[in-house]
Fold these 4 entries.
Entry 1:
Amino acid sequence: MESLNHTFFLWLNAPEHPSALALTLATFFAEQLIWAVPLLIGIGWLRGGEPTRKTMLVASASGLLGLLINQIIGLAWLHPRPFMIGLGHTLIPHVADSSFPSDHLTLWWAVAFSLALQRGPRIAGVTLALLGVPIAWARIYLGVHFPFDMLGAIAVAAICAWLTLREAHWYLLPSYQLSTGIHRRLFSGLIALGWVRE
């Protein structure tokens, strides 16, 4: 399995001298696009009503649970990144920690799958899920992940999205009440101006 992982990685990894366009696109997908997740959740919370806010809380819980599970997996099994074993070309800096599963894609897909499973934002969830594919390619292309790291991310994200939606009755109401109370204190001025919903 590991030899297959290495073979797929070398197929997708950047050449020694990639084109400027490919490098720019890959860097954008690998490092910048992730900020769309907190931006989407933040806008949904600030501008949405109660159903939208609860949807964003469930999606956030899915992403956070995914990152927690990844930390546990990383502690139990340290899988080196390609540059840690001298494989391929690495074109962006990264900490030499465990590569499996990809934290980046776990967070992205956990939020995407959560939104896709809920009633209101399904189109946004499916769109985010599809955008995860070029992000996965970019992380491999730039040399910081193996292909199987992405399969692990899909599995963890799918489990987290399903579990946090299924068990929402345990945590959603208290977390919504707490978040709403904090929101009202932080944004009281903007709420009064009508720029942010109460």
Note: DSSP finds nine helices and no strands in the chain.
Entry 2:
Amino acid sequence: MSKKQKFTLEYPVRCSPTILYEFLATSNGLQEWFADKVDDKDNVWLFTWNGATEKASVVEQEQDKFVRFRWSHTGPDEYFEFRIEKTEVSNQTILVITDFAEKADIKDQSQLWDYQVKDLFHRLGN
């Protein structure tokens, strides 16, 4: 099995970091756009899509800044992260997503993120 590669995607967002963070770091927020159902208990997060459930844990987070998850089936160096940044000049909010995928799958994974972020923006009124 080849080593997965890290990739990042950036999306400008028209909302405050505090509101965006609620959609990225809470089970209710993530259930609005990321998965069909999200449950968290004792740092174990269950994400369900079409009846299939994946388990993850939060490995690091900072309020209104970022949250980093690790799937239970991935190695210690792999994660997916939602980071909220502000541009210096325009003070615009940017959602930065970091994920890992096989080199041949990065394009498909990026398109999947694009689709999910589009749903997030719809929920945010963007």
Note: Helices lie at 17-25, 27-33, 106-124.
Entry 3:
Amino acid sequence: MAKAKMLRSCPVAAFQKMISGKYKLRIVWDLKDGPRRYGEIRSGLLRGTDGSSEITPRVLSRELKALTLSGLIDRKDYAVVPPKVEYRLTRKGKSFVPVIAAIRDWGERHLSEPAALAEAAE
């Protein structure tokens, strides 16, 4: 109960809990350009990754489910064969894109220098 009260009273803690996860910010960022299917999201996450060259289906599914539960994305299941599912930003998710853009801009300004990258790695 104390934890729930803290999250209600501290927007920063609630925000941190909502976006915690390795891929959530990148998924929302990729969806800014329109709806994507599972495979498109997965391949988008694999482009530009420095570390692992693979995201497991279980991890991606968990991140998508969490983003859906938080109200940032919507899952649309088409009743067709073969199965077709699309993910798109909700109004709440679209309002989050400028926040990610600000984080991206900050990163470009402050993390692109070799000294800053070395500091971040420590």
Note: The chain is about 60% helix and 10% strand.
Entry 4:
Amino acid sequence: MSRLAIIPARGGSKRLPRKNIRPFLGKPIIAYSIEAALQSGLFDEVMVSTDDEEIAQVARKNGASVPFMRSEKAADDFATTAQVLEEVLGRYKDTGKEFEVACCLYPTAPFVTGKILREAYQKLEEGSFDTVFPVLRYSYPVWRSLRVEDGKASLNWPEHLHSRSQDLEPAFHDAGQFYWFGVERFLRQRRLFTDNSGAVELSELQAQDIDSETDWKLAELKYKLLHNIG
């Protein structure tokens, strides 16, 4: 079965300039995603989709391929991940190369490992899911969450005012690291989350959104804790 890793890494980043190749504990953050994909042993090719020559050079230096540059349309602020993936798969098809399964692996996901990628891929295959992605459990029950309007707080679910936390169903959110998907189903539905998506659960140390300087520092601290780095 032919498998492709697609790492989408455009040059523009409003909140953290040059985020995709910014040094994370000594090496470009995108290098972690490339290494995880290569070390998993799952892929026929690990490629980076970018519109930026510097990112392309860093990607190649760390072992990924950049067979073509991303189009302007797929690199603007409004392009979706699905549109980027469609472009990549279409460009490969034009050259006579097609893949049965692919993984969209984000460039700012230093916690991803080959082991996690293999676990998620196994779930995709054994569960006949459209897609599989990692999730995190909310540390506090969302059923006891509040909304604040004009300074006044009220419960979103007042029926749970007196519910014990341990009696409430756990809730999860997308970890924002990667998505495994069957190519044929994806091209038909053009979505990475469907009514037939599977999930693998991560611990809080295995993920961190990185959208601000504080996020970046937290991610580095978590990584050090996870890998026992002093």
Note: Residues 81-94 form the longest helix (14 residues).
